[in-house]
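Title: Comparing notes on inverse folding

I've been comparing how different people in this forum approach sequence design from structure. To keep things fair, I'm posting one structure and asking everyone to reply with a full sequence. Here's the target:
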């Protein structure tokens, strides 16, 4: 508690002062005035003022008067110095330092102890690290998951030894799995477009498109679609069990209202291999209206929901749809028959593409030779393959199959094994020939 002195002076009345001065004794009325001194002093204890300064406030008490701003100096260390009139008097304010964040000590690392062999051999006698808790050490060998081998003999040995002896897959199964891996090549950066074309009709172009799409869709985890872009009334939709009457014209008309794959899937037909088919216009009067702009609308929508887009092109190589198809192409399939004129027209197709600026696409293209056409038995297929080998990357021979020759719905499981293998080989070549990343 602070002590504060209050000085109070009390003056006597003039009558009392005069009586004393005259030597007259004061009466009772004047006793109080006579007893009072000339001044009185009272001591009063008052509570001291309490001031709690905020953390961000720096208060400086100065004596009598303000401070000229010109005498304030801030040092590099963060200290503020104020020089007053008296050289010996300074008011110093120091900025408080922030408390450093506590450092988190790292976990202890035991050098050299990463294998159990080191412990057993006595190389290191320290504590075991967490890296030593491996599955090989903790799981019983007989309880580990083992993939059963495929093949008659490996599966038989694996069974009679109670899953103790695993010879692995047979060479035929390994070849099949390697082919599956090539077909299932992952793509990044949007859909891949593969046109299937030729200048001659009736050589099996639609059949090759269907086989290629089925081989891709059966193995790949993403979506594959085949679009019938034939302006002359294509038959691609007749190769699968048709589930809708919608065509490319319906896609063009409904494009603004298609907001997702669910909307788009109602316009396509899907077969057992998960291949989606988009039919062409069936009315010849409407087929002429399907032009380059319409194809771009359909292709843009398909690119949203599919990774591989096959296009069954018509025979009109100078049609505007063909130009839009080739501009998007990442790979190319040229279909040739087994006769002389069919092989010659397929070769002329390559020549036309090279003359119109698609030389790089031609050199990486695949020629599929359909041996189910007439006259194949009379022609040296080896010579046809040798001719195309000088112009394209690979040649695949599609064998004759009764199911394909019927020209009706194609069931992938009912095809001959040799036909399925040829289609899978074509799919693997196409998948490997396309860029994995867009722009590569």
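Reply #1:
Here's my take.
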């Amino acid at each position: 508690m602070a002590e504060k002195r209050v000085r109070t002076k009390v003056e006597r009345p003039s009558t009392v002062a005069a009586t004393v001065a005259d030597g007259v004794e004061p009466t009772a009325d004047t006793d109080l005035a006579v007893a009072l001194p000339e001044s009185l002093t009272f001591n009063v204890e008052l509570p001291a003022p309490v001031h709690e300064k905020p953390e961000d406030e720096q208060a400086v008490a100065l004596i009598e008067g303000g401070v000229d701003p010109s005498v304030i100096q801030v040092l590099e260390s963060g200290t503020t110095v104020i020089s007053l009139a008296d050289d010996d008097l300074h008011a110093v304010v120091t900025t408080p330092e922030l408390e450093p964040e506590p450092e988190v000590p790292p976990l202890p690392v035991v050098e050299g102890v990463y294998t159990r062999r080191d412990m057993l051999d006595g190389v290191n006698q320290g504590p075991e690290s967490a890296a030593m808790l491996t599955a090989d050490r903790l799981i019983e060998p007989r309880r580990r998951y083992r993939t059963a081998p495929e093949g008659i003999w490996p599966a038989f040995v694996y069974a009679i030894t109670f899953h103790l002896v695993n010879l692995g897959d047979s060479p035929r199964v390994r070849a099949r799995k390697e082919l599956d891996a090539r077909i299932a090549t992952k793509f990044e950066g949007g859909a891949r477009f593969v046109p299937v074309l030729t200048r001659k009709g009736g050589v099996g172009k639609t059949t090759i498109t269907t086989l290629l799409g089925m081989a891709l869709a059966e193995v790949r985890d993403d979506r594959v679609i085949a679009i019938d872009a034939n302006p002359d009334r294509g038959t691609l939709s007749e190769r699968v069990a048709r589930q809708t009457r919608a065509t490319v014209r319906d896609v063009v008309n409904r494009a603004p209202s298609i907001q997702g794959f669910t909307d788009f899937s109602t316009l396509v037909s899907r077969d057992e291999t998960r291949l989606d088919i988009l039919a062409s216009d069936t009315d010849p009067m409407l087929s002429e209206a399907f032009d380059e702009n319409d194809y771009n609308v359909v292709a843009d929508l398909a690119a949203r929901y599919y990774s591989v887009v096959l296009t069954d092109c018509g025979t009109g190589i100078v049609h505007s749809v063909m130009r839009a198809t080739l501009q998007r192409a990442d790979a190319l399939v040229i279909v040739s028959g087994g006769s002389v004129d069919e092989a010659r027209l397929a070769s002329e197709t390559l020549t036309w593409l090279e003359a119109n600026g698609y030389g790089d696409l031609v050199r990486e293209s695949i020629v599929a030779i359909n041996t189910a056409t007439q006259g194949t038995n009379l022609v040296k297929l080896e010579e046809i393959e040798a001719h195309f080998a000088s112009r394209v990357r690979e040649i695949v021979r599609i064998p004759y199959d009764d199911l394909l020759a019927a020209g009706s719905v194609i069931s992938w499981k009912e095809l001959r094994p040799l036909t399925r293998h040829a289609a899978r080989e074509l799919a693997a070549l196409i998948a490997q020939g396309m860029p994995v990343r867009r722009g590569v």
